[in-house]
Write a structure and sequence with these properties.
The longest helix has about 35 residues. The protein has 18 helices and no strands.
């Protein structure tokens, strides 16, 4: 599949399929992740489901529009540069099919059984699998051809954030119990009975915070995936950012400044590719390269600069210079038009509207030995929103599902109501198996297709 001509009918069909797959994946993401934002207000009858989903969708959209794209490309940069933009300019169809097919299949599998699973885990596992599959495909050393520094950075955020959610929500719940004397906050909701206006207002506010923070973090993940697909479909129009591409003279200066610090370190499997890319970018005739090829070369340079920035042998000045040069080059290839952000939010909202019930039921009744109370829902959502928003603005992808689920579990422990170990075991097993399953499936699928 890597040898399809970029303008052939087979390439266009395959890339069109990838575009559908990324929209379906984000739609399925709504089943899992956005359902966490509306679970409390729906479960406590604070808002009708349709109203809650529409409001959550609007807040997701606002979060996507205001949240930047740091998380989107933190995930994209997990891929090796030759997979991200093949040197011959062909569309990376095997990468896209492996990524979306693997992540979507596991997402739907866990949703069917009502298990709150992380879409972030699915995507990250599939991306790592593609990087591993690419190493086997080219018989490269796994230690240096996969950007493990970037992978560990992402995985640390995924591993630590649920622990912070569990502890933080538990502590906040205890503080609420000590400071707020309102019995309605600590009683499970009665069927078809709305909570009092104050409790209702609190829960709508916390739902708003989680929805906005979810858009500022999780919504970004699909932005990067949508951009990968439309760049493959229409490279001439979308491979480079027309608002931020450096003029030839400034690009030449940046490339020449990057050359000595990349060339002196051997702890990098793509070093020769990066040096050749710099030669092409320094060519006095910019017409020699198509936009897709130029984008691929810039990613090769960025990959080399990241390698220097994370190399223990590099001096602090070299690391700072590498980071500074990367910051100059990155906006030329890492961007997202407004319509891509809106599409991401729409897919999230529609998915939530269709498939929220299973996850809402699990969060409301499945995690604890007793049903969720308004105070527990509010505590878990306030802490979750703070963690998710902080991670979104620092460029770290985290899982809304794991943070909110851990937060609910933390409040159950703090309340002394106990935890449903059967459901918690299901969630833990999904958490444990998601990465190895998605890494393995994506690696094998990419190897076969490529």
């Amino acid at each position: 599949m890597l040898h399809f001509a970029p303008d052939s009918s087979w390439s266009l069909i395959a890339l069109g399929l990838c575009f559908v797959l990324v929209c379906v994946f984000e739609f399925a993401n709504g089943f899992h992740d956005t359902a966490n934002a509306v679970a409390t207000v729906i479960y406590t009858n604070s808002l009708k489901p349709k109203v809650a989903v529409v409001w959550s969708g609007l807040m997701n959209l606002l979060g996507v529009l205001l949240g930047g794209i740091a998380v989107a490309y933190a995930l994209v940069e997990l891929l090796p540069p030759d997979v991200l933009s093949p040197p011959n300019g062909d569309p990376a169809v095997p990468m896209l099919v492996s990524l979306f097919g693997t992540a979507l299949a596991w997402n739907l599998f866990t949703w069917w059984f009502g298990i709150p699973n992380s879409s972030s885990h699915c995507v990250i596992g599939a991306l790592v699998g593609i990087a591993v599959g690419d190493s086997f495909l080219h018989a490269r050393d796994l230690g240096h051809s996969v950007d493990w520094d970037q992978i560990w950075k992402v995985l640390r955020a995924l591993a630590i954030s649920p622990v912070l959610g569990f502890v933080g929500a538990g502590i906040l719940y205890v503080l609420i119990r000590l400071l707020v004397r309102m019995p309605a906050l600590y009683r499970p909701p009665e069927p078809d009975q709305k909570p009092n206006p104050i409790v209702r207002g609190i829960l709508v506010l916390t739902c708003t915070l989680v929805s906005f923070s979810h858009g500022s973090n999780d919504g970004q993940k699909s932005i990067g995936l949508i951009m990968l697909t439309i760049i493959g479909l229409m490279p001439a129009a979308f491979a480079l950012n027309p608002q931020a591409f450096l003029p030839a003279d400034r690009l030449h200066v940046a490339i020449e400044a990057a050359r000595p610090i990349i060339s002196q370190y051997d702890r990098y499997s793509f070093k020769n590719d990066a040096l050749k890319a710099m030669d092409r970018l320094s060519d006095s005739d910019p017409a020699h390269e198509t936009p897709a090829e130029k984008r691929g070369d810039i990613y090769q340079v960025l990959s080399g600069l990241r390698s220097v920035a994370s190399n223990p042998a590099a001096s602090s000045d070299e690391k700072k210079q590498a980071s500074k040069l990367a910051a100059q080059l990155r906006p030329t290839v890492e961007y997202a038009p407004i319509w891509v952000r809106v599409l991401s939010a729409l897919c999230l909202g529609l998915g939530t509207m269709i498939g929220y019930r299973r996850i809402v039921h699990t969060l409301g009744e499945g995690i604890g030995s007793t049903h969720l109370t308004p105070a527990q829902g509010a505590a878990s959502e306030v802490v979750g929103a703070g963690l998710i928003m902080t991670a979104g603005y620092t460029g770290l992808p985290v899982s809304t599902t794991h943070i909110i689920t851990s937060g609910v579990a933390g409040t159950m422990v703090a309340a002394g109501s106990g935890i449903n170990m059967k459901m918690l075991t299901k969630i833990a097993l999904a958490w444990i198996f998601t990465l190895p399953v998605t890494v393995t499936v994506a690696a094998v699928l990419f190897y076969i297709l490529a």
